[in-house]
Amino acid sequence: MRDNRQHLVQGGPGTGKTWLAFEQAYRLAERESGKSVLLLCYNLALARTLEAMVAKRKPKCGAIAVRSWEMLAREIFQSARIKWKEPLDYEERRQFFNEVVPARMREIVNAGKFKPRFDGLVVDEAQDHDTRFADQPADDDGAGWWSVYWKLLHEGTNAPMAAFYDPGQRPLFRNPAAFDVGTLRRHLSQATHVRLANALRYSRPVFQFLKSLQSEATAPLVNELRHKGILPDGADVELHETAPEKAISKINEVVTNWIIGGFCRADDILVLSPHRQKSRSCLAGWDQIGAWPLVEYEHRQPGQIAHLSINKAKGLDSLAVILVDLKPFAQLPDEQSQMDFCMGASRARQLLAVVQSNNGHCRIGRTGKHCA
Q1: Would you say residue 372 lies in a domain?
Q2: What 3-state class would DSSP assign to 69?
Q3: Which of 51, 241, 276, 370 is 20 to 30 A removed from 94 (C-alpha atoms)?
């Protein structure tokens, strides 16, 4: 496949999409005497991870520019000298990012205010990049946000590119019909379709636990989980049900057992919550778990435990994951909560613990520097 110019790559959780996206960007950058490649994803946390990967393994020639969708949008706004005004209200923010920003990006590139600057394009989490604009007429066969991306390429839809996607990982609160891989196929000049069949990330206990998370909402995600051969053995998945005010003590217990037991390092642990803000989580007020600092994922250093929202963890994985602020899966009241549970659990490679609240989402904050 290395000589094909364009790929549409579909794969479920843990099939290696992000690693292959990085490798493809690397190969495109080193073609001929060096190319400029845009490596685009949706989440900022994933973009920071990809930036670190590029910094560690720089192409011998050419260049890779890593951007999250918001980073690219801000860059396009700046090129037209348009101020970025991000609302605080939740519904207004959704409208801003889903409708206002994409429409304004389209206006800017169509007016030629952001000139083509890349030779190739690689998109990870492609299912989160809409193939239709919110205001697009039904009879308009345009490609939504992708029409903007292609105008950034010297060769447009003929340029080398790859899109890595999984429809099952698109959030339920975003219109599922707004991404259609068939639209991409119709617009690209020579796209091949690739299917990554088997998960490569998980130990046997984690894989079996994920397969047990069955519901109508999670079916598109869980049914895509397959493996070939014998999965590596590992520790059993831990399920702990506790009162919200005692959740932090249970997290401390899990972390201490893992680290002192030699199963992982502190910086191998990722604590995930469905809440976008730490202040709404059981982690509120805590900046240390046991003897180890607790920091935002983007600021993690060796010896520190990271926390992040489940939605922002898409595309990422970690040796060890602790899920917090969720009821037991069978008691979850809505489809989005079920998706959050499944998506968060699918980030773990070998160690997974779920600290479940027996009173629903935890919203109790405490002051203090560490767990007792």
Answers
A1: no
A2: helix
A3: 51
Which residues is 305 bridged to in the sheet?
Answer: 294
Q: CA 132, CA 99: separation in Å to the nearest integer?
A: 11
Distance CA 136, CA 147 (A): 12
38 contacts 152 by C-beta, under 8 angstroms: yes
For residues 345 and 199, what is the distance between their CA atoms, to the nearest angstrom? 14
- Which domain does 88 fall in, by range? 6-196
Q: Do 190 and 223 fall within a single domain? A: no
Q: For the segment 57-106, what is each residue's pLDDT rounded down to a tens digit?
A: 989 999 999 999 999 999 999 999 999 999 989 889 989 999 999 999 99
Question: Distance between CA atoms of 203 and 235, rounded to whole angstroms?
Answer: 8
The predicted pLDDT at position 141 comes to 81
- pLDDT-based confidence at 372, cuts 50/70/90? very low
Q: Which of 295, 294, 326 is nearest to 310 (CA)?
A: 326
User: Is the separation of the CB atoms in 103 and 133 below 8 Å?
Assistant: yes
| Three-state SS letters, 113-141 | CCCCCECEEEECCHHHCCCCCCCCCCCCC
Q: Is the dihedral of CA 180, 186, 187, 190 positive or negative?
A: positive
Number of domains making up the chain:
2
Instruction: Report the alpha-carbon distance of residue 45 to residue 284 in Å, rounded.
Output: 20
DSSP string, 134-192: TT--TT----THHHHHHTTBTTGGGS-EEEEE-GGGS-TTS-GGG--HHHHHHHSSSEE
